[in-house]
Design brief:
Blueprint: H1 7-10, E1 14-15, H2 18-21, E2 31-36, E3 39-44, H3 55-62, H4 73-77, H5 106-115, E4 117-120, H6 123-128, E5 138-141, E6 149-154, E7 157-162, H7 170-188, E8 224-226, H8 230-234, E9 239-243, E10 254-264, E11 267-276, E12 288-295, E13 300-304, E14 307-312, E15 315-323, E16 329-338, E17 347-357, H9 382-391, H10 395-404, E18 410-416, H11 418-421, H12 453-465, E19 471-472, E20 477-486, E21 496-499, E22 509-512, E23 521-525, E24 534-551, E25 559-564, E26 567-573, E27 580-600, E28 607-624, E29 652-656, H13 674-690, E30 694-699, H14 717-731, E31 734-737, H15 738-742, H16 759-773
Parallel strand pairs: 1-2, 4-5, 18-28, 18-29, 29-30, 30-31
Antiparallel strand pairs: 2-3, 5-6, 6-7, 8-9, 9-17, 10-16, 11-15, 11-17, 12-13, 12-16, 14-15, 19-20, 20-28, 21-24, 22-23, 23-28, 24-27, 24-28, 25-26, 25-27
Helix pairs in contact: 12-16, 13-14
Length: 782
């Protein structure tokens, strides 16, 4: 080992202890040799005193090494030929390692061998016979100089994978493919699920559904229900996506669970469980379980999960694999079932699973299935989940945030009984004839005519967050509009510029003007070139927006494209002569949450954007049905069928129900106790949560005509108010407590008849709603 040290070091004095170094005159800055049992350490004045405690014990150990004569020949020679019991090597051992394909190509190489390989003398001959070569198949070029090697047919062309000719090795590769697969699995371990909550557990990660990316999500199922199927329970599953039977040609079609990933190469093994609620397996025309991969270049790939295992008379596990396209990056995996229409059977979908492999034929046994906690993308622990619940905004806060966001239209549904309808106030519309169904008459929505709390609430929202004018829709429905201006230049949270091919962020080109544009500044999307293809990205909730831009006289063919939720909705003109400010393009779509992209198509003219204007809508739907009880609003009720009155577009739901639950004269819907009201509200609230609704419960004002003094009553409004508060706690939703507000008026000066609120009571309820919402500024009411 001393051959690598300079002569002046190897010729230093030698000592066998630190003390003996003093014999050689240890001096500052000088290096000495310390030797022990034939091994040496080099020390100077700074380290010498540490040798006994540090280096010396290690030198003692090294001195105990075996003699070289006691070692096998291979231990000192390092030669493969000196190894005894050598394993036989395949023909690949004679090739240079640099000639072989990389690990990322092993999957396509092994697949090519299994599909079949062909031999050609030259690459030209192989290309001449390209039509006879199967896609994904292999080709050996044997006598063409630098073109020699192994090729795979990809997208119709031969792609070189190895400089070494693999003829004669094909059988070796085919034989060892299974071994390679087993080795990959051994290294990888049981593959986890890319879905953080594939069993839809109530305390797991919130599911992200495919329909949230679409403009017409009303046709997709997103309701999660409880399932008691014993087969599913054995797999750790108690919740599933509910897809009702449908005899029509429109309506619910299932859904797909989504997971964000970043995957290149290999394949996805996917699985989904379907429970047939009705016992049959009519998936509808072209109905299919499937897996979809979405790529960063805007393309996608999918495959039908046609194979299945029957896990019971009414449970099937559908499964299959989908290869990741060569050279592409998958950014999202979607697994689920899309059912055809019409169809006779109802289904529940659950047990969503997808694992990533580099092996060619993975199976369910190669995954961690059904260990739902073994997710590739971890959700926080149970403790973190509880903390997130505590930190989660209340439903009242969510409504307040929504009202403060002018690129978010807000739909509010009020459901309940006569306290919601408005009985007791002045200026009421006729309430008869009525049958406790959704087609019962509604009160006017004009607060100036009938100042019910519902009408005052609508008027307040219209004046505070919209233009003030209220437009009547269907009976009981009123809404207001406003054009809200979006600053595309400086509102970087809402409006982002990205490369539309890769999705990567791009800088904003902002220019200021003394006059002309709406906000005296513009955002330019540059002309399209090989290097740039910028697009403006933003999201909104609503049904309409306008693009305000400057039309420019440079290119008569200049246009721009608008895309909503992945679908191009139009190509529009960006040219005028002379150039002009303030051009506007109206874009209308179905009401919902939307993702928008727009980009320049011109190659010599920029797209000069002034602003995006959102046609905001705030709507209140009054579904107060006189005389109804909480049980009549259950999702399972088919006699009164009131629950469907809460529409898919109603994001926020305010419920005040239960006053009639106290009555004993409405058999067989007799409730008898506030606990029964609590049960009904929990069922209603859980179902609404599965539909993505934000529920706010309200207690009624205190009645003076009440149990035990009033006849035909089984409990009082105090017990009812407590049941409503407890249900809100059970559901984790907000509660507006009108009962507590009214307790300081024992004479009931806010009531018209001992139960229903008069104008004073309606004003008090309205003010309590605004106060509970935490909205700034209470209106002055006469």
């Amino acid at each position: 080992m001393n051959q690598h040290l300079p002569t002046r070091v190897t010729q230093l004095p030698i000592a066998d202890s630190v003390e003996n170094l003093e014999v050689f005159g240890l001096k500052e800055g000088r290096t000495h040799r310390l030797r022990k049992g034939g091994f040496q350490a080099y020390v100077n004045d700074e380290t010498a005193r540490r040798v006994e405690a540090g280096v010396a014990p290690f030198l003692d150990l090294l001195a105990q090494k075996p003699n070289a004569d006691a070692l096998a020949d291979v231990a000192t020679s390092g030669s493969y030929v000196d190894l005894t019991n050598r394993p036989a090597l395949g023909t690949a051992a004679s090739q240079n390692v640099e000639d072989f394909p990389s690990h990322s190509d092993l999957g396509s190489l092994a697949a090519a061998v299994s599909i079949g390989t062909k031999n050609f003398d030259t690459l030209a001959l192989a290309n001449a016979a390209i039509g006879d070569i199967a896609e994904g198949g292999g080709v050996n070029i044997l006598a063409d100089g630098s073109n020699n090697g192994f090729y795979v047919k990809e997208s119709g062309a031969l792609v070189k994978k190895s400089n070494a000719s693999l003829t004669g090795m094909a059988s070796d590769i085919s034989t060892h493919t299974a071994s390679i697969a087993r080795l990959d699995l051994a290294v990888q371990g049981a593959a986890p699920n890319v879905f953080a909550n594939g069993n839809l557990a109530a305390d797991g990660a919130p599911p992200v559904w495919f329909d949230s990316l679409l403009s017409t999500n009303q046709t997709f199922a997103s309701t999660i229900v409880t399932t008691t199927n014993p087969v599913l329970a054995a797999l750790g599953i108690t919740r599933a996506l509910d897809v009702s039977a449908n005899a029509e040609t429109v309506g619910l079609t299932g859904n797909q669970l989504c997971a964000d990933v970043r995957l290149r190469g290999g394949r996805i093994y996917a699985s989904v469980l379907l429970e047939s609620v009705t016992g049959g397996w009519d998936l509808g025309s072209n109905g299919e379980p499937r897996v979809t991969l979405r790529y960063s270049d805007g393309t996608l790939g999918n495959v039908v999960l046609s194979a299945y295992d029957s896990l019971g008379s009414n449970v099937r596990r559908y499964y299959g694999t989908l290869a990741i396209s060569s050279g592409k990056t998958a950014y999202r995996v979607e697994v689920g079932a899309v059912f055809g229409r019409p169809r006779a059977d109802a289904f529940r979908a659950t047990g969503f699973w997808a694992s990533h492999f580099f092996t060619t034929a993975p199976t369910i046994t190669d995954t961690a299935y059904p260990n739902w906690s073994q997710a590739a993308y971890r959700y926080p622990s149970a403790l973190d989940a509880r903390v997130s619940v505590l930190e989660r905004p209340t439903t009242l806060a969510r409504l307040r945030y929504a009202l403060y966001d002018d690129f978010r239209s807000v739909n509010i549904c009020l459901f309940g009984d006569s306290k919601v309808w408005g009985l007791g106030a002045s200026g009421l519309s006729p309430s008869s004839p009525r049958t406790a169904h959704l087609d019962d008459p509604r009160n006017t929505i004009d607060a100036a005519v009938s100042p019910t709390w519902a009408n005052l609430f609508l008027r307040y929202l219209a004046l505070t967050y919209c233009s003030g004018a209220v437009t009547a829709g269907d009976p009981g429905v009123g809404f207001a509009r406003k054009w809200a201006i979006g600053d595309v230049c400086y509102d970087n949270e809402r409006f982002k510029v990205r490369d539309r091919r890769t999705g990567s962020p791009r800088p904003k080109n902002v220019f200021a003007f003394a006059a002309g544009p709406l906000l005296l500044r513009v955002l330019d999307l540059p002309p399209v070139s090989g290097a740039t293809d910028d697009a403006l990205y933003f999201e909104f909730t609503g049904d309409a927006f306008k693009i305000r831009l400057a039309t420019i006289s440079t290119d008569p063919a200049a246009t721009y494209t608008v895309e909503i939720d992945g679908t191009v909705v139009g190509v529009y003109n960006a040219y005028s002569s002379p150039s002009a400010w303030g051009a506007e393009q109206m874009i209308s779509t179905a009401f919902g949450r939307h993702k928008v992209r727009l980009w320049n198509n011109a190659t010599i003219q920029g797209l000069r954007l002034e602003a995006i204007l959102h046609h905001r809508r705030i709507q209140v739907r009054n579904q107060g049905i006189i005389g109804t009880q909480s049980q009549q609003w259950l999702p399972t009720d088919t006699t009164y069928n009131l629950y469907p009155g809460i529409l898919d577009e109603d994001e926020f739901v305010i419920g005040q129900i239960g006053t009639n639950d106290r009555a004993t004269t409405t058999s067989p819907l007799r409730i008898n106790a506030g606990q029964r009201t609590r049960d009904s509200l929990k069922t209603i609230g859980s179902h609404l949560a599965g539909r993505g609704k934000h529920l706010i419960l309200m207690t009624p004002t205190r009645a003076t005509t009440d149990w035990p003094d009033a006849p035909n009553m089984s409990f009082d409004t105090q017990e009812l108010a407590m049941a409503i508060r407890q249900a809100a706690g059970d559901l984790g939703v907000s509660c507006i407590d009108n009962y507590a507000m009214s307790t300081f008026d024992p004479a009931g000066g806010y009531l018209s008849d001992g139960l229903h609120d008069n104008d004073n009571g309606h004003r008090g309820t309205f003010r309590n709603i605004i106060t509970s919402l935490g909205l700034v500024g209470l209106p002055v009411l006469s």
